[in-house]
């Protein structure tokens, strides 16, 4: 069974700068350094047994990473190229569309009620 301090050490080793910045790629004098957004969290607990109940311990952690872009280095010139998250764009577009439909429906209902009154 993994002890709490071992779990925390493993979590600390997992959430590092190496997870944020990938290995640089170099070709034809251009260096590309990929970057990601990395988030992590964890928790743990321990309990002492009493009587016939055994002692317990547990814990866990999670890490989420997504690409955000890359630095491009050409000689002395450094530029940033953002990564396009098309899934997020589509989800936001769908949410905006649903809200717009609900607002239009409410406006039309209010107009009908005023016209009928």
The total of beta strands comes to 4
The coarse overall form would be flat
Distance between the termini: 72 Å
Q: What's the alpha carbon Rg, rounded to whole Å?
A: 26 Å
Question: Care to give the gist of this entry?
Answer:
The protein is of the alpha+beta class and 117 residues long. Helix content is 39%, strand content 39%.
Structural features, described:
The protein has 117 residues and is α+β, with helices and mostly antiparallel strands. The protein has 3 helices and 4 strands, in the order H-H-E-E-E-E-H. It has helices at 4-14, 17-20, 86-116, and strands at residues 25-27, 30-47, 56-74, 77-82. Strands 1-2-3-4 form a 4-stranded antiparallel sheet. A hairpin with a 2-residue loop joins strand 3 and strand 4 (77-82).
Defining key terms:
117 residues; alpha+beta; 3 helices
Write the layout of secondary structure elements.
Layout: H1 4-14, H2 17-20, E1 25-27, E2 30-47, E3 56-74, E4 77-82, H3 86-116
């Amino acid at each position: 069974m993994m002890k709490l301090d071992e779990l925390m050490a493993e979590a600390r080793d997992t959430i590092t700068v190496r997870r944020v910045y990938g290995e640089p790629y170099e070709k034809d004098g251009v260096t590309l350094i990929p970057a990601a957004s990395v988030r992590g969290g964890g928790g743990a607990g321990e309990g002492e047994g009493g009587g016939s109940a055994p002692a317990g311990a547990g814990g866990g952690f999670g890490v989420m990473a997504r690409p955000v872009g890359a630095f491009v280095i050409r000689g002395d010139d450094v530029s940033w190229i953002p990564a396009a998250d098309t899934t997020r764009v589509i989800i936001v577009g769908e949410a905006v569309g649903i809200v717009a439909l609900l607002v239009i429906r409410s406006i039309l209902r209010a107009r009908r009620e005023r016209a009928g009154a």
